[in-house]
Amino acid sequence: MGSKAVEDLIEASSDVHFSGFHLKNTDPSNSVAEQPTTSTTENIKQPFVIGVAGGAASGKTTVCDMIIEQLRDQRVVLVNQDSFYHNLKPDELKKVHEYNFDHPDAFDTEQLLSIMEKLKYGQAVDIPRYDFKSYKNDVSPARRVFLIFSLSIGPFTCVSGLLDADVRLARRIRRDTVEKGRDIGMVLDQIRGMHTLIRDAQTTKHDFVFYSDRLIRLVVEHGLGHLPFTEKQVNTPTGSVYTGVDFCKRLCGASVIRSGESMENALRACCKGIKIGKILIHREGDNGQQLIYEKLPSDISDRHVLLLDPILGTGNSAVEAISLLIKKGVPECNIIFLNLISAPQGIHVVCKRFPRVKIVTSEIEIGLNEDYRVIPGMGEFGDHELIKNAKYIATPGKGILAADESTGTIGKRLSSINVENIESNRQALRELLFTAPSALSYLSGVILFEETLYQNTSDGKPFVELLQDNNVVPGIKVDKGTVDLTGTNGETTTQGLDSLAARCQQYYKAGARFAKWRSVLKIGPTEPSELSIQQNAQGLARYAIICQENGLVPIVEPEILTDGSHDIDKCAAATETVLAAVYKALNDHHVLLEGTLLKPNMVTPGSDSPKVSAEVIAEHTVRALRRTVPPAVPGIVFLSGGQSEEEATVNLSAMNKLEVLKPWTLSFSFGRALQQSTLKTWAGKKENVEKAQAAFVARCKANSEATLGKYVGGAGGHLAAQSLYEQGYKY
Known about the structure:
This protein is α/β, with parallel strands linked by helices. It has 3 domains: 3-192, Rossmann fold (3-Layer(aba) Sandwich); 207-227 and 247-381, Rossmann fold, CATH 3.40.50.2020; 385-720, TIM Barrel (Alpha-Beta Barrel), CATH 3.20.20.70. The radius of gyration is 33 Å and the shape is elongated.
């Protein structure tokens, strides 16, 4: 059998059950009865029966055709359930598009059973042949001896209501439209597959997650059906005895992170308190077979294991994960591999290497593209979109405008120019920034406050659309500010985790694609304390994973305030300690680093210490980052930390001029350092808008040049040189 036939067999048999009954003396070469009879004479042979059953579009006919081809015998009759549809009446023909061909009553079950009864005793029969264009049947000449019976399970079992046949929608549409001549609209009217929703590029993130979860739950439940059961009797509240089954209690899950974690909730919903281990495997194209991390139950060798990974592509990661389980002592036959979609290549790789591993999937795809991605594929489980957005935001030559000031903070800014803190004035300032000619060409992202996320320009265009139309990614501030950390000397932690997941879902719907969370630490005689470091690191990590689970790239911001008289070396030491703790926490929470950005402080002396040159700041800052920030992080976007507009830009440019290896883009995420001279120039007056926008464009252009190490200084004049430092600065 050729490779194509093997792949076809894999596809055809993916969710089909086989059963065979082989009676004695059924050699095909033997003579067969020519007349109906129930006698037991020597020359009468009962038929050899092969039963093939499965849901609609599961591949029954394909399997039957392959069996017939392999038997190479003309005395084979195929009894297909599709041959036993009722002839449609004139009134039914008028509404054929509404006719449900999947309902049990659509079949002439009595005729089907009658023919089966005759075949059982070796009688010749006439098999109907249904015409799906005229919706009527005729008969085929009688044939005898071998019987292949293709049966949809729906009308013949009480469990049909528990199954979702629509998970095989793609194959079903091909079959019904090409082979049966049905109208595609009719097919879709009969069955609206959940797979269609998760494959549609227009499906929202929320709907994708919802319908994926439904399909995953079905896969998990079906997978559990392959576990061993024992009969068990229990006493009911009425005093009666009920005979049922007892579940296999030696069970655990193992998810291939990160995408496998999307299946964990469904498994926990079906198996309360189940242990779930983690396996992290490097996946890069088709050659990624490197085990990076594993944490599995110590007694896993004594358990059945449900291996979770929603997409089976090349099969390399699956082979690596299964190999690990077997090395841990898990018998191959005790592993059930659950996934949502599978490529034939991956199935072949796994089945060839581990023939006793069971694979449960909801759909077998066409194959893989040149990038080894499953096609036609579906929406992402987060990783691809997160990586793409993070990488784009970190584009060299671009940076982020932090326009996420809270209502109170922006009120202070407006009061400094004698402008009232009302919604219309806040909207006017942000419109001034977002519509400044060519300013957005220097930006890859804008961090918005919740109010701004839903605001429009004066002509009614949503700010989010305005940014997107100019290739700028909208972001959102999601923390709820700092609170005192009990047991410390005035240190703080950040609040806002309780409702974060729900808010992230809403922000994603509104168009946001990244988020920002600010943690604040300080330098003192004993600060930052270990409690403060760990508390804030854990908070940042928890925030980051929640954002990623809801489609948002998290900007991780552990800001060390410049307040104090410490020197630059002490700031460098504190920065390294804090960043090391943050990345330890991010890894502990399985945060995808490629889908994150870091927003740190620059390493500078304290506010009460003598200043140092930009070159010294650059050397200390880059060294601290090289010691602590993994190269997987695509970009580092600095906060200005109270520096003047000019200082922040000059220091950023000095870092990018350093001739040392910097595996990440070094860019900016400035608020005050991009807006201060613009705000002063505007002063709340319409006649100053054009000049204010020119000042803003100048700052954006200057910082764009700084990300490339090309800023020569002087942009913005005397306003850009004014210090923006505020002691104990709070948003």
